[in-house]
Each structure stands twice: as C-alpha cells, then as structure tokens.
Write a structure and sequence with these properties.
about 200 residues; alpha+beta; Immunoglobulin-like; 4-stranded antiparallel β-sheet; 4 helices; 10 strands; about 35% helix
C-alpha cells in the first residue's frame, strides 16, 4: 500500500511540474509574440516643416484597451522629453513636455489597429535625436526606437539673394545719367555746327 501511495504522489508531482512548465513556456511565448516596430528607423526633415513618426504593435481585434500604456519620448541628455503618453487607454496630453506643446497630434483612428501615428509640426533643430516608444498591453511589453534629424532652414544657411545681386536701381540711374550726358554733348555739337555754317 505504501508503494501505491508513493507512486501516486510521484505521478502528481510530475503532473504539477508539467503544468508549471507549460505555464512558463506559454508566458514566454506570449511575451515573444508581442512586438513593437518602427515603420522607419531614420527620418530627415527641415526646420519649420512637419513630419509623421509611426510605430506599430501587436494587437488583438477583441483585446481590452484598459491595459494600454504608451510612452513615447525624445532621449535628451539630461532626461527623456515626453512626446506622447497613454495611460490605461486614455491619452494624457498634460504629461507632454513643454518643447512639444501644441505641436503634436495623434491619429486616434489607427490606434485600435496597433499603430501609433504622431504628427509633429513646426519642427525645430532641437527636436533632433533618438525617439523611444514603450508599449504595454495585456499581451506583453516591448519598445522600438527611431532617429530624427532636423536641419536648419535653407534661408538661414545662405546669405540673402539681394546682397548677391547688384542694385538694379543703381544701374538704372547710371544708364539715365549716361543717356543725358550723350544728349547734352550731341546738342552742343549740333549748335556748334549750325553756328559754324551761319558764319560762312
């Protein structure tokens, strides 16, 4: 009888171990299948222009959005600057950093498709840098990053064109003066010729 009890205990222990192993493997598999990607790893734009940064994440059509956390930020030297934040499925605009205030619009229609699309307007050179987006849902947590490079506006890189060209008003004045001089000289030469003929 003791032998039967020990074998049933051993069997039960093996079953519990197998269930635990299955649970661990399934949780790892869920974490591995939740992915966050960027549609572009690098963006190039000019100052005062606009750009659209986009990330995608794994989503289920029947998923609950109560557990949706999004944190997109610019990794600045001293601290991350918040670009966009969602907490439990609700946007938190007041968490946005002052640098981006009034310049970031999110496309809410595509969020349910697992797409984070952020339109950044009136770009500045200080907006350049590495942007990281952390996403967490009931399916897992992951993040992805992209780089943005904002160059100075073209009109600030080149000297004004009017300084490179001669002043057209100055040229006109010169031509008028030369024309008057030729007319005066011609008049005096004609008068001299007439007087000379009359003297004969």
């Amino acid at each position: 009888m003791f032998c039967c009890l020990s074998s049933s205990s051993s069997l039960r222990m093996k079953m519990i171990s197998s269930i635990l192993l299955l649970l661990i493997l399934s949780s790892c598999l869920c974490a591995a299948t939740f992915v966050v990607n960027v549609t572009q790893s690098s963006y190039q734009a000019e100052e005062n222009h606009s750009i659209t940064l986009e990330w995608t994440f794994t989503t289920k059509t029947q998923g609950s959005w109560r557990k949706l956390f999004i944190y997109c930020s610019l990794l600045a030297p001293h601290k991350p600057l918040v670009l966009y934040q969602v907490h439990e499925g609700v946007e938190i605009p007041e968490s946005q950093d002052e640098q981006f205030s009034g310049r970031v619009q999110s496309d809410k229609d595509v969020l349910r498709e697992g797409r984070i699309r952020l339109h950044v307007s009136r770009l500045r050179t200080e907006d350049s840098g590495l942007y990281l987006c952390d996403v967490e849902t009931e399916d897992g947590f992951n993040s992805a990053e992209c780089r943005l490079n904002v160059t100075a506006a073209a009109d600030q890189l080149q000297p004004p064109t009017e300084n490179l060209q001669p002043d057209s008003r100055g040229r006109i004045g010169l031509y008028v003066s030369l024309g008057l001089f030729v007319l005066i000289v011609s008049y005096f030469l004609c008068q001299c010729y007439i007087l000379k003929n009359q003297a004969r």
